[in-house]
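Researcher: Here's a chain I'd like modeled. Treat it as a single chain, no partners, no ligands.
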Amino acid sequence: MRFTPTQLPGVVVVEVEPRADDRGLFARTFCRDEFAAAGLCGDWVQCNVSYNARAGTLRGLHWQAEPHVEVKLVRCTAGAADDVIADLRPGSASCRRWVAVEITAASRRAVYIPVGCAHGFQAFTDGTDLFYQMSAPHVSAAARGAKWDDPSLAIEWPRCASRIIAPRDLAWEILP
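Model: Modeled as a single isolated chain. C-alpha cells:
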C-alpha cells in the first residue's frame, strides 16, 4: 500500500499496489502493521456500507462528537464518488479548509479521515457503493453535521443535473 498525504494534515489517500496476472489481480487493502508504521489508526470496530441508487446523491457533512469521535477509512466498491473531507479541528492551521478525492471501484483507493474532520460525498454514477471502516461505533446522540453548502467551507461540489439530498442533511445548520 502507498500512503499519500493530502493538503489537510492527517487526511491520507491509501492506494493499493495490485499484483496482476492472467487471472486478474490481488491487492492488500488493509494491514494493521502498515497503518501503524504510517502513524494511522487501524483499530476498526464497525464497518458500514452506503449504497446510492442514483448519480447526484450527496451525503454529508458528518462526524461524531466527543466522546464518540471516530476515524474513518472510506473506499468505493462500486461506481464512483467525489469524497470530501472538511477540517473542523479548532486551532488547526487548516481549519475550515477541505479536500476532495475521487474514489472509484476501478481505482480501489481509499481515503483515511482523522478525528475532527467532517465527511461527505457525491455519487458520480448510479449504483455507487461506499464501504466504511470505523474506529468507533455509531452513536445517534453523538451524530453531528454541517450543511453541505456552508459558505464558511465553500466546498466546490461537482456540478450535476439533479442533486439528491436527504431532509436530515438539508436541515444541518451553518457552522458558527
